[in-house]
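User: I'm putting together notes for a lab meeting next week and I want to include a structural view of one of the chains we've been expressing. I don't have a solved structure, so I'd like a prediction I can at least talk through. The sequence is below, exactly as it appears in our construct file.
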Amino acid sequence: MSSSVRERGTDVPEPTVVVAADYFQSYSVVGLLAVVGVLFVAVAFGAGRLLRPVVPTPEKLLTYECGVDPVGEGWAHTQVRYYVYAFLYVIFAVDSIFLFPWATVFAADGYGATTLVEMFIFLGFLAVGLLYAYKKGVLAWT
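Assistant: Thanks for the context. Below is the predicted structure for the 142-residue chain, given as structure tokens.
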């Protein structure tokens, strides 16, 4: 037998075993980090429970919101314009969410003209919505 031919023995690791070990080692780091995070939160809450004073009073057991004492019914009238402002904010937040990825695709080769037209169509819809809100007087602060 030639000395250049080696038989497979225990000194030659299986390639799939090495790949699997690397794969699970990366997950073990994530798992260890998750366990450390859970322990950190548990210790913090446990220390808070042990160190805080417990003196229940009737005032502490009342429903509390924004420093206003609960008087009367739980229903309160809210003006619609605040919802409209929130809705307009959401529209422009979505606009900014779409503009950042568009800017990265626009820089790629072969996508320039198509993405530019698509973004102007998208901005046109937003402009129509903004113009509608302006015509209805929603943007006037009273």
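A couple of points you could mention at the meeting. The mean pLDDT is 77. The chain has three helices and no strands.

User: Perfect, that's what I needed.
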